[in-house]
Design goal:
The protein has 100 residues and is of the alpha+beta class. The protein has one domain (2-98): Cytochrome b5-like heme/steroid binding domain (Flavocytochrome B2, Chain A, domain 1, Roll). Helices cover 31% and strands 15% of the residues. The chain contains four helices and four strands, in the order E-H-E-E-H-H-H-E. It has helices at residues 5-8, 35-38, 53-58, 75-91; strands at residues 2-3, 21-24, 27-30, 94-98. Strands 1-4-3-2 form a four-stranded mixed β-sheet. Strand 2 and strand 3 (27-30) form a beta hairpin. The chain binds protoporphyrin IX containing FE. The site of protoporphyrin IX containing FE has 10 residues, from helix 3.
């Protein structure tokens, strides 16, 4: 499945009839089983329906960091992001990619 970032927004958990998606480095994970984290009111709900790569790399929940940009990240931040990617791969199914 290929989704634009605009289409991805529909899967932010606000519609309970839809799955919840979160993308890391352009790959979309179905995080619906993590609804307590990513559903409405969850601690990480700001990542839902988005590519959260930058926020994960920076360990940030700030809205301005919740985006796909890897610009000017440090090697350490890239390492943190890669660790998150491994965690998501182990825990959630990949359902597609974000396309321009
Ligand atoms: C005081 C700060 C924080 C505390 C106490 C905290 C605590 C936790 C706990 C208890 C879990 C659940 C681990 C598990 O059951 O597998 C978790 C998962 C997670 N945390 Fe945090 N966290 C904090 C800050 C952050 C920040 C700043 C971020 C931003 C990137 C973040 C991102 C995540 C993510 C993405 C998960 C994975 C949820 C999943 O398994 O899908 N956390 N955190």
């Amino acid at each position: 499945m290929e989704l634009t970032s605009d289409q991805l927004k529909q899967y932010d958990g606000t519609d309970p009839s839809k799955p919840i998606y979160l993308a890391v480095k352009g790959r979309i994970f179905d995080v619906t089983t993590g609804k307590s984290f990513y559903g409405p009111g969850g601690a990480y709900a700001m990542f839902s329906g988005k590519d959260a790569s930058r926020a994960l790399a920076k360990m940030s929940k700030n809205e301005e960091d919740v985006c796909a940009s890897l610009d000017a990240l440090s090697d350490k931040e890239i390492g943190v992001l890669n660790d998150w990617e491994k965690k998501f791969e182990a825990k959630y199914p990949i359902v597609g990619r974000v396309v321009p």
